[in-house]
Amino acid sequence: MEFNTLFPDTRLRPETRIAKCQAVMLRMLKIFDFLCNEHQIEYFLIGGSLLGAIRHQGFIPWDDDLDLGMTRANYERFVTEVVPLLPGDIFFQTTETDPKYPACDYVDAKLRDRYSRYTKNKYQYHDGLQLDIFVYDKAFIPSNFFIILQNFLLKGTNNNARRAKVLKWISRTIPNKLVYTCNYLHNWAQLTYGRFFFYKKELTPLIRVKFEDMEVTIPNGWHDSLTRQYGNYMELPPENKRTTHHIEQPEPCLPCDHKESLVWTNNI
Predict the structure, then answer these.
(1) Which stretch of DSSP H or E encloses residue 7?
(2) Under a CB-based contact definition with an 8 Å cutoff, are residues 35 and 86 in contact?
(3) 3-state secondary structure of 239
(4) Closest CA to 14 of 47, 61, 54
(5) CB 246 within 8 A of CB 118
(6) Is 196 helix (H, G, I), strand (E, B) or coil?
(7) What is the pLDDT along the chain (268 residues), one digit of tens a residue?
(8) Can you tell me the distance from the alpha carbon of 132 to that of 66, in angstroms, rounded to the nearest whole number?
(9) Are strands 66-71 and 130-140 parallel, antiparallel or unpaired?
(10) InterPro entries from the xrefs (predicted)?
(11) Which single residue of 70, 89, 92, 160 could bond 74 by disulfide (Cβ 3.0 to 4.6 Å)?
């Protein structure tokens, strides 16, 4: 498939560094969305990316990553049906494809741009510009405290396959009063983020909304979700809080020092 024709790489067109980085991530999102739609695999924006879709109809202006959610069944189909079709400049990162990747119990998988980086050779794992993929299981008690406690009990199952097996068993065995959430809540600090989960009715059906120059899929219960997480989500934070998630400034055309990286030549 001619991805460069369908989704040309425009990272050099914007003037600012953050806009160049967002152009990289937007292209990855378009490819991800296209392939998911072709295979009838469902995903949804979450967190700051969901907030950006609602408040800005695109990226939060200072945001430097993208957050996506998928239910377990959709994620497993994505791995088998879509990942083999990804273009050569996108790296699918898990503990299986990148053994030094440390975050499988935090972010299940990432799509990484092979030409870019967040930090200058600081880590042994690939650190290109990213789409975070969080896997959601309907296997948690609907309270932030109990979700975090349950995730800590599952901490010993941070091997992806073993953890998935446990969560599938919970979702099949426990009565219906459970909610969907992901590994992100393994940290006690997330108590300050509000209630970071979805009720089943909020995920069914998913809806399409504008995001930059494309459409993306979000939960139909986006308002309740954003209110739980952010309170008055339409209010902009103070200017000193409008910062990226990463300490160093990301580089859209300089790769990290990793065997899966590629050298960007169009800027020479």
Answers:
(1) none
(2) yes
(3) helix
(4) 61
(5) yes
(6) coil
(7) 789 999 999 999 999 999 999 999 999 999 999 999 999 999 999 999 999 999 999 999 999 999 999 999 999 999 999 999 999 999 999 989 998 887 666 789 999 999 999 987 678 899 999 999 999 999 999 888 888 888 888 876 667 788 889 999 999 998 788 999 998 777 776 776 668 899 999 999 999 999 999 999 999 999 999 999 899 999 998 888 887 777 678 999 999 999 999 999 874 4
(8) 6
(9) parallel
(10) LicD/FKTN/FKRP_NTP_transf, LPS_cholinephosphotransferase
(11) 70
Task: Give dist(CA 49, CA 52) in Å, integer.
Answer: 5
Assign 3-state DSSP to the chain and report helix, strand, coil percentages, each to 5.
40, 15, 45
What ranges do the domains of the chain cover?
A: 3-137+207-241
d(CA 66, CA 88): 20
Output the CA–CA distances (angstroms, integers) from residue 26 to 21, 30, 150, 235, 267, in the order listed.
Answer: 9, 6, 34, 24, 19
The answer to whether the CB of 144 falls within 8 A of the CB of 195 is yes
Token pair recorded at residue 97 = 């494809």
Question: How many helices (H) and strands (E) are present in the chain, helices listed first?
Answer: 8, 8
- Give DSSP secondary structure letters for 38-104: HTT---EE-HHHHHHHHHTSS--TT---EEEEEEHHHHHHIIIIIGGGS-TTEEEESTTT-TT---T
Among 31, 224, 1, residue whose Cα is nearest residue 131:
31
